[in-house]
Amino acid sequence: MTFDKQSYFRFIQLEKSLAGNSVEAYERDIERYVQFLENTGITKFDQVEEEHVSKFIKTLRVLGLSSKSIARNISAIKGLHKFLAGERRSQYNPTQNIELPKKGKHLPDVLSLDEINGILNAADPAAETATKLVLRDRAILETLYATGMRVSELTGLMQSNIMDDQQLVRVYGKGSKERLIPIGEFALKWIKQYKNRLRPDLARKKKSNDALFLNFRGGSISRVSVWQIVSNYSKRAGITKEIHPHTFRHSFATHLLEGGADLRSVQEMLGHADISTTQIYTHIDRKHLIEQHKLFHPRA
Question: Within 10 A of 241 (CB to CB), how many other CB atoms are there?
Fold first, then answer.
């Protein structure tokens, strides 16, 4: 079975605005699909019927692919047949009645307060084995948990964004939308120590342009470095599950809501345009809801 693969991949790249890695994933999906069809005895795309596509999808489930991967495969296949029909390289589209699986709401991983404290305390500048960068790392970890900001927002922080007197931090989120987030005394204390004791030494190595958190070369810290910082101190705290900066954001939101914060306030702090995005955090602690119902409902 032959077709102009490069034309198709350019087609999906433009139609779906896919990044390089996503295009490569689609390429692998299509290669597997074509191989399946050939093994079935199909030599032309005109011979493909809806039942063949359905059998391929069942094969993916048997192979144990995740729902997300299966959905991407279906999207790639539908795109391929749409392309072939549009280019008049096949008579009809056998995937017209094939629907993408509905995406279930994924509940994000959340750290307990003990786990959060364990990670924060693992970044102890007073420890005998601590390097000088531990002070910066502690300030970063404290800021992530205190504000729930995205890692891209943290790496873009300037010194001037920290409003000590008001205990606020100004961040620029998606679409450069500005918002103010309360930051609290703990994070401000560690930021102040970092700025006084370490940042001046780092800044001498390179022009920092007022960036708050710097790498050891004096430039603005990268997102990859923040991921490594979170991962390293999580392991030191004895946490075996995979932790990343967004886990701090999830934990921040969940702990606020469990503590009684209203949804609108949490939405504002997280910078969600749609409150339905914030509402996912209300589904996390069902046990807490049941306990509250038993405690306060007159008929419970």
Answer: 9
